Amino acid sequence: MKTSLRESLRAGAQLALAGLAAAVLLAGTWALTRDRIAQSERQARLQALEIVLPANRYDNDPIADSVQVQAPAWLGQPAATVYRARLAGADSALVIEATAPDGYSGPIRLLVAVDRSGTVLGVRITAHQETPGLGDDIEAGRSNWIFGFEGRSLADPARERWRVQRDGGHFPQFAGATLTPRAVVSAVRRVLDFVAAHGDAVRAADAGATLSFDDAPIDPPPAR
Question: What is the per-residue pLDDT across 164-221, written as a single tens digit (0 to 9) for each?
């Protein structure tokens, strides 16, 4: 019995040591790779920002100078990151994560850059599940449709014309797919409305702050 007990204790000790060694190995691997992973994630965010934000518009670090915004009625998601671009110390642009919750096949995620005057610098779709060959024309690689937002503002076209043409608005829809562009147009308009209503508060907040806005945009009247 004593020999059996010693063998059991020895096996238990070996198992515990093996578990400890595995834990140490995992911890060491995480410590060695976490900085590399963080750098890769940062690089991916920078590349996404560069697509919608011209390099001559900022000289700061928009990622470090970002804030978290909780404004679901405006941006279509519970929380969003807003990247703030500055040039020579002056506010230049905001790059805002947003979601169109009413896509044909589900939510459509966007990145929208808006300059200090409220003009769109660029819009890109970052994720969607729209129908291939129809709704996926919202992608920059599929058509030029998404570039139609560049240079637009709530005054150009007029706010009530921030709709697809089928609804009496300015923006074209796709043949056989109206719901998808309708959702994206509405989402971009809500981002512009958000910037008009709360842009000053977002620009003035400390980097890393979390801001909450419980109000909601008012839909524009039907286009005539």
Answer: 999 999 999 998 889 999 999 999 999 999 999 999 999 999 999 999 999 999 988 7
Quote the CA–CA distance of 49 and 24 in Å, as a whole number: 37
Q: In the structure encoding, which two tokens stand for residue 53, read together? A: 């934000």
What is the residue extent of each domain of the chain? 1-52, 55-212
Question: How is 30-97 classified by DSSP, letter by letter?
Answer: HHHHHHHHHHHHHHHHHHHHHHHS-GGG-SS-TTTTEEEEE-HHHHSSS-EEEEEEEETTEEEEEEEE
Asked if 85 and 58 touch (Cβ cutoff 8 Å), the reply is yes
Please give the Cα distance from 100 to 2 (Å, whole number).
70
Q: What global pTM score does this model have?
A: 0.81
Task: Kindly report the length of the chain.
Answer: 224
